[in-house]
């Protein structure tokens, strides 16, 4: 009797389990449409987009091509958007985490304005370089999509500011080089304005449009005390 049971083998699998297993998306699949008409073509794992793939949004025509993990953009990928005139323009290429820009990447605002650097939670955060449409560039630290920390802004005419920033404005200790006229303003800046500083000649002999006369040498009796008082007055609430 026992030998007969052994020859019969395991009981057959229930049909619903077999159908469920076959219906699961695993490995590479051709185009699959979501309920809103958007399309995905690529790799799957356990019914989730996982691996390399392309996702096309039905509502906008924008598309993402790159890495997926656990049904979200994770890894490296490129987002291309459809412009109002019907053309396609690459908007971002770089790292992703949970459908947000994360890590190092390049963000394109237009053909002649773009950012390259670090991102965190979909915003420019960390170190980065911004190329503006007017020909100026900024290289330095960012926080929540704003210039914040230390960095250098170089204008199209080569004049430049080197120093501290807060909320997209010159704020803290900094130097502004007026290369075109051969002068330097060094001091304390608050909300883009120099509140306490010293203007002096710097490379005046090589300047394109030098000032008619050099700046005479002047000195304060207690320059450190003057600067300390300015810091206490204007930076006291920075925290």
UniProtKB/TrEMBL annotation:
Residues 1-22 are annotated as: Disordered. Its main location: cytoplasm. It is found in: Cytoplasmic vesicle, Secretory vesicle, Acrosome. The keyword Repeat applies. Coiled coil: none annotated. Keywords: Cytoplasmic vesicle, Repeat. It holds the Pfam family MORN. It comes from the Eukaryota. GO terms for cellular component: acrosomal vesicle. Assembles a suppression complex (suppresome) by tethering SIRT1 and MDM2 to regulate composite modifications of p53/TP53. Confers both deacetylation-mediated functional inactivation, by SIRT1, and ubiquitination-dependent degradation, by MDM2, of p53/TP53, promoting a proliferative and cell survival behaviors. May play a role in the regulation of spermatogenesis. This is MORN repeat-containing protein 3. It comes from Rotaria sordida.
